[in-house]
Amino acid sequence: MGQEFTHVDERRQPSMVDVGGKAVTHRVAVAEARIRFPASVAEALRESGFETSKGPVFQTAIIAGVMAAKRAHELIPFCHPLGLENCMVEIGMSDHDEALVRCTASVHHRTGVEMEALTGASIAALTVYDMCKALSHEIVVSELRLVEKRGGKREVGGP
User: Fold this and answer.
1) Cα separations (Å) of 51 from 35, 69, 78?
2) What is the pLDDT of residues 141-159, one digit of tens each?
3) Catalytic annotation present for 130
């Protein structure tokens, strides 16, 4: 592989990465997660206007995703605390009984926002699961992934 783990010091002990010497740049990351519903659940959601007894499913999940992205540093060891400048969570239902959650996070900083975007997408997807689990426990959250990363030394994906 030729690459070193970044959160291990020269003594092979866990450590936070020192980003003090990096340039401040505009950093953007986009992450996605998929939620597969049994056909009966997808149909019930569509018929209800995506409402359950717990409230509006996608709107609640969007709020949860943004809240989680802002607190990624409290959940993930060595994740730098960032004052996100923007975080947007979008959730859309496909024709194939599947929802796609997409979280975009951005900041001007010395470190990237991949973990914030991934945290936002995952928590939004888990919130959908939580709000729909009364209908079925066969809902599957899958394919959490980084889709795009811009503004740092290494870029991933792109428009």
Assistant:
1) 16, 24, 37
2) 999 999 999 997 777 887 6
3) yes
Give, in order, the Cα–Cα distances in Å from 149 to each of 116, 119, 144.
12, 14, 15
Catalytically annotated residue among 18, 95, 97, 130: 130
Residue 148, phi then psi, degrees to nearest 5:
-155, 145
**pTM across the whole model:** 0.90
| 153 vs 149: CA distance, rounded Å | 10
How confident is the model over 18-75, as pLDDT tens digits? 788 888 999 999 999 999 999 999 999 999 999 988 999 999 999 999 999 999 999 9
For 32-150, the fitting CATH number among 3.40.1280.10, 2.30.29.30, 3.30.70.640, 1.10.3210.10 is 3.30.70.640
Q: Which residue, among 144, 154, 156, 115, has the nearest Cα to 35 in the 3D structure?
A: 144
